[in-house]
Specification:
- With about 190 residues, this protein is α/β, with parallel strands linked by helices.
- The protein has six helices and seven strands, in the order βαβββαββαβααα.
- It has a single domain, classed as Peptidyl-tRNA hydrolase (Rossmann fold), CATH 3.40.50.
- The chain is about 40% helix and about 20% strand.
- A seven-stranded mixed beta sheet has the order 2-3-4-1-5-7-6, with helices on both faces.
- Helix 1 crosses helix 5 and helix 5 runs antiparallel to helix 6.
Length: about 190
């Protein structure tokens, strides 16, 4: 059975649960709930698994803090013998409007410290990522406060519908392939 490692980026701790920077965790939590599976604490993160259309999806929420995510990603790739093409990193992106999804086969870290660490540990930029737009409603110099800030009430209303779309995108990545999932979900 083909295996996929889906890694949601976020920071551990109650103070980060509802922050924009933790959208990777939120998307994986939503997917786990939809697939009726739960996370269990394991080495370097919380892990959940489900099977869908003949594929095994391993969901990982690293417990290493965002800026050290590479260690957890590398460990679970080795443990589960996951090829880079079957890895999907799910993270926030301030360069996309709220709820916009951008699935890409590779790319720069775009200033995202979680992606930067993953690239340094894996020694490549050639890994799929799903960037989820959190908007950029902040003034110059306030980026950190914005991404570590909690969602506003009006944003939460938009989020619920977009979280479902992100979950569908992840399942499409595993079952239909990266190119098909990009055609279906990018710019929608």
């Amino acid at each position: 059975m083909k295996k996929y490692l889906i890694v949601g980026l976020g920071n551990i701790g109650a103070e980060y649960i509802n922050t924009r920077h933790n959208i990777g965790f939120k998307i994986l939590d939503t997917l786990a709930t939809k697939q009726k599976t739960v996370f269990e604490t394991s080495k370097l993160g919380d892990v959940s698994r489900f099977n869908f259309k003949g594929r095994t999806f391993i969901l990982l929420k690293p417990s290493t803090f965002m800026n050290l995510s590479g260690k957890a990603v590398n460990y679970w790739m080795q443990k589960e013998k996951i090829e880079t093409s079957n890895l999907l990193i799910v993270c926030d992106d301030i360069n996309l409007t709220l709820g916009a999804i951008r699935l890409k086969p590779k790319g720069s870290d775009g200033g995202h410290n979680g992606l930067k660490d993953i690239q340094e540990v894996l020694q490549t930029i050639q890994y799929p990522r799903l960037r989820f737009g959190v908007g950029a409603d902040f003034s110059k110099g306030n980026q950190v406060d914005y991404v570590l800030g909690n969602w506003e009430a009006d944003e939460i209303l938009i989020l619920s519908e977009k979280l479902d779309k992100a979950c569908d995108c992840i399942k499409s990545f595993g079952t239909e392939g990266l190119a098909n999932a990009m055609n279906t979900f990018n710019n929608k």
